[in-house]
């Protein structure tokens, strides 16, 4: 059952340094846990459509998207439905949604192309722990968390284009705009699980189970925020998890953030994965890659 996974196990030195703050380790996951993970994936596959199977025995790509900034639109709560917003409100092609505030995603993408700015990821997120609207955002304003700025911005409908130039550090972003878009510092670490249900049922089915385990386990500090994120690629390797870990200088000032990407994470894997991160270890079997970004 585990032949392909076990072939990843080699006699190489089990500790290498793929990323500044962590050591990547091999062969430290109990085989019984790997079996449980694969059995869970096989159980899901029995219920998933024939063209939407998890490929748990395929090699996990080791290359995350290349980006320098991640713009995350906060999804407002849907008070008119018992279904979560990530399941009901996120269209398959969310950037083509013309309803507010999701219409901002397509506009920002178009404006970024106009100012020839690459390396910016754009997603919607739904807060599952923390990341909630402390009070209702004014009508006609959208709320964005921007990484690595680690700042929460509230943007008016009329400000989308200049906000995009501000994000891209474009020449069209005036000193006045830079002063205007001050935002509010966001000081917590953040775990995001892909759960874009209407885009791909695999992520949509596994995401709430992963969130449940992340809430439950003692290996995740209660001060770490949890959220579900729209499409970040790798549906067939669900569950896909993105961990933003902030770092501070000796005097407490924010210096940067690590973006750690993981795939093939099942609920059974959460505790071992997160215990490893807490101890400064990355388990290679679930690792998709990392992006390190400095404060700007």
TrEMBL record:
InterPro entries: Aim32/Apd1-like, Thioredoxin-like_sf. This is Altered inheritance of mitochondria protein 32. Signal peptide: none annotated. Belongs to the AIM32 family.
């Amino acid at each position: 059952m585990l032949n392909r996974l076990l072939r990843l196990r080699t006699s190489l030195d089990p500790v290498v340094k793929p990323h500044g703050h962590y050591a990547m380790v091999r062969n430290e996951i109990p085989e019984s846990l790997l079996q449980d993970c694969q059995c869970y994936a096989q159980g899901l596959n029995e219920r998933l459509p024939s063209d939407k199977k998890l490929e748990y025995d395929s090699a996990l790509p080791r290359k995350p998207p290349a980006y320098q900034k991640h713009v995350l639109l906060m999804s407002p709560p849907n008070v008119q439905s018992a279904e979560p917003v990530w399941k009901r409100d996120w269209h398959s092609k969310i950037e083509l949604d013309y309803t507010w505030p999701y219409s901002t995603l397509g506009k920002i993408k178009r404006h970024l192309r106009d100012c020839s700015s690459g390396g910016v990821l754009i997603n919607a997120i739904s807060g599952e722990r923390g990341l909630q609207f402390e009070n209702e955002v004014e009508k006609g304003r959208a709320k964005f968390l921007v990484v690595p700025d680690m700042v929460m911005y509230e943007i008016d409908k009329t400000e989308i284009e200049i906000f995009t130039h501000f994000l891209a550090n474009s020449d069209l972003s005036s000193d006045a705009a830079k002063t205007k878009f001050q935002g509010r510092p966001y000081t917590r670490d953040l775990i995001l699980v892909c759960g874009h249900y209407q885009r791909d049922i695999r992520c949509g089915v596994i995401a709430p189970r992963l969130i449940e385990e992340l809430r439950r386990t003692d290996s995740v500090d209660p001060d770490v925020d949890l959220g579900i994120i729209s499409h970040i690629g790798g549906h067939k390797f669900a569950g896909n998890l993105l961990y933003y870990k902030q770092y501070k200088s000796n005097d407490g000032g924010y210096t940067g953030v690590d973006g750690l990407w993981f795939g093939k994470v099942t609920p059974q894997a959460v505790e071992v994965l997160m215990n490893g991160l807490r101890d400064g270890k990355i388990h290679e079997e679930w690792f998709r890659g990392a992006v390190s970004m400095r404060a700007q």
